[in-house]
Write a structure and sequence with these properties.
By secondary structure, the protein is an all-alpha fold. Among the domains are: about 110 residues; about 120 residues, no CATH class. Helix content is about 85%, strand content about 0%. The protein is built from 17 helices and no strands. The longest helix has about 40 residues. The protein is extended, with a radius of gyration of 30 Å.
Length: about 400
């Protein structure tokens, strides 16, 4: 049985959809309808949510509410969210665009909230392969980033000129103090805006990287780094992530030489901010070492892995999982150089750590067992190598049997 409240709501909804509402009633019903729509959306009741949001828009039309009123943009946002959840991406795109236009009219094209929405729409276009629209908006974001950086330089020059003038006149000591407070406040606001735009450009760059549109990805990553370098102290961790993102792009596009200095910067920042107990540190060591290997700089890679091993043991103990990772990576390097007697003990150590981490029968051990067997075999230890290979094959057989059983079960 329907409650009185539901009957009233249905009657009100029908009246609005037929255009039968007084200004006072419409004003009240907009908030009610939107609240009902958000509640229904939260309960996955999409039909009720859609009807409520569309009825809320009808109220705005009937009441001739100006487009600069935030109610329009709020409801467009609700509908875009609804249609995106339902997989109706064409409708979602339509309402994100309408929200953007409404907020532009209300706040101006360069308001941070509007810029954030431009970034959201750009990501939507890239994800749903609307390339021409995405590229156009990306161009606008990059141009905006360049423009605010240029304006900021001009503003810094003006602040410095004013500061010099007032500092040379003792009677203006209080003014100098106020000027510094004003500059600090302005820099804080600018820094927050810069970091939001940098995060947006990073996410857009990542999407372009996935689509192998490396030129646009590079432009986004570089502008994000510029913005962070302006907003943050030189050794800030966020800069390390920015350098790493651009380096990963260069690695993906075969520009290893360009990636290497960025990874050095990233590792330097990381090692100064974090101790070797954190996995990010060895991950960045490994990334940098791989650039050395790729460029044929094997001695540099070896030195880096040895330093990492020493520091991890010193900071984390002999059985930390990163000891296994570093030992395995260094052993792989030695195998490439046919240094089998040096690779074997490292692989044995890595295997022992992995056994403790995953268990003695885990499929995770197979690559290590195969590499260890190779090192032993080519190091003239055939009988030991045979035992290791037998163990690897046993684990492979168990894994294969498990997969066959799982596949058979899935057929019933």
């Amino acid at each position: 049985m329907l409650s009185v409240r539901n009957l009233i709501m249905q009657g009100l909804l029908g009246a609005i959809l037929l255009g039968m509402s007084s200004p006072a009633l419409a004003s009240v019903s907009f908030e009610t309808l939107r609240a009902e729509g958000e509640k229904a959306l939260g309960q996955n009741n999409y039909g009720v949510a859609e009807r409520s949001f569309l009825a809320a828009i009808k109220v705005c039309e009937t009441d001739k509410i100006p487009v600069t009123d935030s109610r329009w943009a709020q409801t467009y946002k609700n509908l875009a969210q609804l249609y995106e959840i339902r997989g109706q991406f064409q409708k979602a795109e339509y309402y994100i665009e309408k929200e953007l236009r409404a907020r532009e009219k209300a706040l101006g094209a360069e308001d941070p909230q509007v810029i954030g929405l431009v970034g959201k729409l750009t990501r939507f276009y890239i994800t749903h392969n609307n390339t021409s629209k995405a590229d156009r908006l990306t161009g606008l974001l990059l141009a905006y980033g360049e423009r605010i950086m240029r304006k900021e330089k001009d503003l810094d020059v003006h602040f410095n000129e004013l500061n010099k003038f007032f500092a040379s006149h003792s009677e203006y000591a209080q003014t100098v103090k106020k000027l510094k407070e004003l500059k600090d406040s302005a820099e804080k606001i600018r820094a927050d805006d810069h970091l939001e735009l940098a995060a947006s450009l990073d996410s857009i760059g990542a999407l372009y990287k996935e689509k192998t549109k490396y030129d646009l990805a590079e432009q986004c990553y570089k502008r994000a780094i510029d913005l962070r370098e302006k907003a943050l102290t030189p050794g800030h961790m966020a800069l390390g992530f920015g350098y790493e993102h651009l380096a990963s792009l260069y690695m993906a596009s075969g520009k290893t030489q360009l990636a290497q200095p960025l990874l050095k910067q990233s590792l330097d920042i990381t090692s100064k901010n974090l101790d070797f107990k954190r996995p990010e540190v060895f991950a960045r060591v490994d990334s940098l070492a791989k650039t050395y290997i790729s460029l044929g700089q094997l001695n540099e890679a070896e030195t880096l892995y040895k330093q990492a091993l020493s520091l991890i043991k010193e900071n984390c103990g002999a059985f930390h999982k990163d000891i296994g990772s570093a030992s395995s990576s260094l052993a792989t390097l030695y195998l490439k150089q046919s240094r089998y007697s040096e690779a074997a003990p490292l692989l044995k150590s890595a295997l022992s750590i992995s056994e403790g981490q995953y268990g003695p029968q885990s499929a995770q051990l197979v690559p290590l067992l195969d590499a260890y067997a190779e090192a032993l075999e080519k190091g003239s230890k055939s009988s030991e190598a045979a035992k290791i290979r037998q163990r690897a094959n046993s684990i492979k057989g168990n894994a294969s049997a498990c997969n066959t059983t799982a596949n058979s079960s899935a057929n019933f």
